[in-house]
């Protein structure tokens, strides 16, 4: 079953006499247990698309359905949706990790007792129990990102939207966030993650949709896309120039099917 259906979304920003066609035509579907990587250069329209799906900005055209409901018309839709936007905007910096989880749990409709239980479970699972009484502003960037994902999961949503989840994290925190995302998808949730890093898309997603200038340019299974692009090009950097004979050896080992040719 498709948890997310987005049809022909479009958003034009208008300000001080200018217009920016941020999203021209984007359609996406995600089934349960599926991770879709939404890949594109900076400014391609990823965040604008996520905001329309999350019900935060109204599309100029197109429709969104989350578990069959329209987030722009039906507030109940928010029950099925968790989102982490760019820059941890879903956390209160002066509140502790635990307070953030409980506060957002109640805000999303959980009874306070349930919010407390879920909060402790998520802290344990995200390896943040020892930081539960630490204000968000004193946590490392990686811990803040993990907490932001935990907060987005507090009400057990079917769809999780993650905007650049590994941006600005160090190698270790990136790996730990990647592992969590895989586990969350395995629980049966649908995940939409935006990234401009191909390696993140490769490690996490089942399918990839590439957005260019506000429109979907390519959509395919991640494995097909990787196969298509792998092995087609190499960049070999050398500290000093090679003379003809050795250069030829490098050339022919990279092109074993070729039997001859002039090296220039
Ligand atoms: N609030 C806004 N007002 C005007 N232009 C915006 C606004 N938000 C984004 N844009 C513009 O829309 C385009 C798409 O931006 P965005 O959706 O943030 O792309 P991405 O997340 O892929 O980097 C960019 O040209 C950006 O400058
Ligand atoms: Mg963005």
How is this structure best described in words?
It is a single chain. The protein has 264 residues and is an alpha/beta fold. The protein has a single domain, classed as Rossmann fold. 33% of the residues lie in helices and 25% in strands. It is built from eight helices and nine strands. It has a six-stranded mixed β-sheet, with helices on both faces. A hairpin with a 2-residue loop joins β1 and β2. α2 packs across α3 and α2 runs parallel beside α4. The radius of gyration is 22 Å and the shape is globular. It starts with a strand and ends in a 10-residue tail after the last helix. The C terminus is likely disordered. The structure holds adenosine-5'-diphosphate (ADP) and magnesium ion (MG). Magnesium ion binds next to α1. The site of magnesium ion (MG) has 4 residues, from α1.
Task: Summarize this structure as a short list of keywords or feature phrases.
globular; disordered C terminus; Rossmann fold; 3-stranded antiparallel beta sheet; alpha/beta; binds magnesium ion; binds adenosine-5'-diphosphate; 264 residues
Helix coverage percent? 25-40%
> Which structural class do you get from the secondary structure elements?
alpha/beta
Which blocks of ≥5 consecutive residues have pLDDT under 50? 258-264
The CATH homology group name:
P-loop containing nucleotide triphosphate hydrolases
Q: Could you tell me the CATH topology label.
A: Rossmann fold
Amount of beta strand: 25-35%
Report the principal-axis shape.
Answer: globular
Distance N to C terminus? 55 Å
Q: What's the helix-strand series?
A: EEEHEEHHHEHEHEEHH
Largest sheet: 6 strands, mixed
Name the ligand types: adenosine-5'-diphosphate, magnesium ion
> Architecture in CATH?
3-Layer(aba) Sandwich
Mean pLDDT: 89
The spatial strand order of the largest sheet comes to 5-6-7-3-8-9
- DSSP E strands, number: 9
């Amino acid at each position: 079953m498709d948890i997310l259906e987005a049809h022909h979304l479009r958003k034009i920003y208008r300000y001080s006499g200018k217009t920016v066609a941020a999203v021209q035509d984007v359609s996406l579907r995600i089934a349960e247990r599926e991770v879709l990587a939404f890949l594109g250069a900076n400014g391609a329209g990823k965040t604008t698309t996520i905001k329309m799906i999350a019900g935060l900005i109204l599309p100029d055209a197109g429709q969104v359905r989350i578990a069959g409901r329209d987030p722009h018309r039906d507030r109940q839709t928010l029950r099925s949706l968790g989102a982490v936007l760019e820059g941890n905007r879903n956390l209160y910096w002066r509140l502790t990790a635990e307070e953030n989880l409980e506060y957002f749990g109640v805000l999303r409709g959980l009874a306070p007792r349930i919010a407390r239980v879920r909060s402790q479970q998520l802290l344990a699972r995200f390896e943040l129990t020892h930081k539960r009484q630490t204000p968000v502003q004193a946590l490392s960037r990686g811990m803040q990102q993990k907490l932001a994902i935990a907060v987005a999961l507090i009400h057990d949503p079917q769809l999780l939207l993650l905007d650049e989840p590994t941006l600005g994290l160090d190698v270790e925190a990136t790996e730990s966030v990647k592992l969590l995302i895989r586990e969350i998808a395995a629980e049966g949730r649908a995940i939409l993650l935006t990234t401009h890093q191909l390696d993140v898309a490769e490690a996490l997603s089942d399918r990839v949709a590439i957005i260019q200038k506000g429109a979907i340019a390519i959509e395919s299974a991640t494995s097909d896309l990787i196969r298509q692009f792998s092995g087609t090009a190499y960049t070999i950097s050398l500290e000093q120039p090679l003379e003809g004979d050795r250069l030829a050896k490098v050339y022919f080992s990279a092109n074993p099917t070729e039997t001859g040719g002039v090296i220039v």
